[in-house]
Write a structure and sequence with these properties.
alpha/beta; 8 helices; about 45% helix; elongated
Length: about 200
């Protein structure tokens, strides 16, 4: 089906401000692998358009029910962990702030389309999200664990998160120590089985 075509990530924009939608459309359509398939100004219109257009990603600023085949990336001016938790519990796969720089937004769209949970660096990941056991890992460790499971090297993780390779190595060691695991392959299996990461 068209929405599964990996060459284009289709995006539905939902915001009650047309200027905001126009700004996000401009950012998204600068990217060859992203395409805006529609815009909605309220929840009712968003639900109707989501069913009709079946976008891969819904970029919006309020919770949207009934879109199991799409992933929702929330946009908000607020970084409080309570709002983040409510959004994720309602089914959103990402939470970004509206002042996110262009590259962060584009990256977030691509990552939620792949099945990852993406949170803005400024927001605190709520502990014990529904369906997840964090095993006492910090938000940064969970972020690094997600990238380890994705098969990225310490250098690739360091580049993606703007950290030093040494810092990533320390985090990796701390993750393994916290979980009592000493091999990467075992770490990947454990993380997936225990819902510590999200896979597409």
């Amino acid at each position: 089906m068209p929405e599964k075509n990996p060459s284009k990530i289709t995006v539905l924009l939902v915001d009650d401000h047309s200027l905001v939608r126009r700004g996000f459309r401009r950012i998204i359509e600068d990217e060859p692998d992203l395409v805006v398939v529609g815009e909605a100004s309220d929840g009712d219109e968003a639900v109707r358009m989501a069913r009709e257009l079946r976008p891969r990603v819904i970029l919006m600023d309020c919770a949207l029910p009934g879109t199991r085949d799409q992933v929702i990336l929330m946009l908000s001016m607020h970084s409080e962990s309570t709002l983040v938790r409510q959004s994720l519990d309602a089914g959103a796969r990402g939470y970004m702030l509206k002042n996110a720089v262009d590259l962060e937004l584009v990256s977030a769209i691509r990552r939620v389309a792949k099945g990852e949970i993406v949170l803005a660096p400024e927001v605190v990941r709520p502990a014990g999200l529904k369906g997840e056991r964090t095993a006492g890992l910090t938000a940064r460790e969970l972020e690094i664990l997600q990238l380890i499971v994705a098969g990225k090297s310490n250098k690739e993780i360091a580049d993606e998160l703007a950290l030093s390779v040494n810092t990533v190595s320390v985090h990796r060691a701390n993750i393994m120590d916290a979980l009592g695991i000493h091999k990467t392959a075992e770490l990947v299996v454990y993380a997936i089985r225990n819902g510590l990461v999200n896979i597409s």
